[in-house]
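Before the break, one more example. Copy the sequence into your notebook; we will annotate it together after we see the structure.
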Amino acid sequence: MQSGETVTAEGGAVPARPEDRYGTAGKGKAPKRWRRWLFVAVALVVSCAIAWVYYLNLGKTPIDAERIGFQELPGDAMEVTLNVTRDDDSKPGVCVVRVRDKSGAESGRREVLVPAGASHSRVNTVVKSIGTPVTADVFGCSYSIPRYLSTP
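Here is what the structure looks like once it is written out:
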């Protein structure tokens, strides 16, 4: 065995790496603990941020509507009945109702003003369609009422 060679388990000699070219071997170096704790802290902050966003987007809505029924009317129109539930009955709200045709495409839409009143209210509306409507649903509700829908 020559100088600068290491012996393997099988007994053969393997030339050693030149330290000036590759640096010293990092064997036996313990990982720094602060890196591990930093990774845990960053993962915890990111997880909390994701949970907060999901809570805001998928949590309980302050105003919600459920379609109770619908009936086709002559002239490509549909009457839709909604149950509106809200947490603040002193504020008026708006719900977007839409009808769909046979292919499932949206064929009509209407914004319905829900006046202030009871926390549970039933609203009827008629939605005109560009074709023969086959079903209706509620797209969503909000307390942000557009100017053209509010009463002066």
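The two ends are 100 Å apart (CA to CA). The chain has a mean pLDDT of 84. Try to locate both features in your own notes.
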